[in-house]
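User: Reviewer 2 asked us to show a designed sequence for the structure in our supplementary figure. I'm pasting the structure tokens here. Could you produce the per-position amino acids so we can include them in the response letter?
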């Protein structure tokens, strides 16, 4: 049983890597646009409302939140920024809730919640996750993206918790090349 589960996880990882990597409709790019994203670049945030909780080094943005870092953008209803304030403000982590959309020039990921660990360069999305590139997509319960390597792993999540019932599903486009006559 463990062997079968690990084979399933490896297969899902390979499919997700293919979706973000060279195996999709935009294969000429060779790698994901997320690979090598600079998680140390400045983050610009706009929202309808902001509250600073300086004693706990936290800022909360609410209402039509848009956060941008380089070519990466994140839209959500609520965003909590954890920061260190020794020599200015250094963002460590961003938590997003209320429906989250993360967009790069070639991919879009949607989910119920997201955590962006800027120190590790990792984005984790959970709850009804859908990753799209071109006409292809993957759906599951949890998506983890390593911005340094471009590696993405999609998990199905717990059975009964999301609509996928603990499974990953997807649809992949096929090149329209020469057809047989």
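Assistant: Here is a per-position design you can include in the supplement:
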């Amino acid at each position: 049983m463990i062997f079968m589960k690990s084979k399933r996880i490896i297969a899902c990882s390979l499919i997700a890597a293919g979706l973000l990597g060279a195996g999709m409709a935009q294969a000429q790019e060779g790698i994901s646009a997320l690979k090598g994203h600079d998680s140390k670049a400045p983050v610009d945030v706009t929202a309808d409302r902001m509250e600073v909780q300086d004693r706990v080094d936290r800022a909360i943005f609410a209402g039509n939140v848009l956060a941008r870092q380089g070519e990466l953008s994140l839209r959500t209803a609520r965003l909590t920024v954890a920061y260190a304030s020794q020599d200015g403000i250094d963002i460590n982590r961003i938590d997003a809730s209320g429906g989250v959309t993360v967009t790069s020039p070639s991919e879009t990921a949607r989910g119920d919640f997201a955590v962006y660990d800027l120190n590790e360069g990792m984005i984790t999305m959970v709850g009804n996750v859908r990753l799209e590139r071109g006409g292809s997509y993957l759906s599951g319960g949890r998506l983890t993206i390593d911005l340094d390597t471009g590696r993405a792993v999609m998990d199905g999540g717990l059975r009964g918790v999301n609509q996928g019932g603990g499974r990953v599903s997807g649809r992949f486009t096929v090149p329209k090349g020469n057809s047989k006559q």
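For the response letter, you might also mention the following. The CA atoms of residues 15 and 153 lie 9 Å apart. Helices lie at 2-20.
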